[in-house]
Amino acid sequence: MASLLPHHLASPVRVAQRATRTARIQQSKPIRHVTVQMAVRVATCDAQLARCLLHGLLGQALGVHTIDIDRSRDLACLHVELERARVPDAMALLIRTLPGAEFGAIRRMDRSR
Hints:
By secondary structure, the chain is of the alpha+beta class.
């Protein structure tokens, strides 16, 4: 059957229909939260503040965390698990509050939430 729309309008209509189908497919997929481990180095005296900041930002979404203390260099390294989507917020908060914070590797965890 021939299209009733002029030729120059048929293509945008098809594009819109394709976009609608794609949106429906994406809505039906379950949202997958990717968990990562982020390493943050701060002065030993700032370790507790960094931990409290992350807890305040992420609440119960903050996963397992450990703190390694290097007394010879007066550094604490926090290893925290969080959703990958929250990493920019966490980094921005720490940099604003603790300008000396350094970030190490961010590794994807094997499990997902």
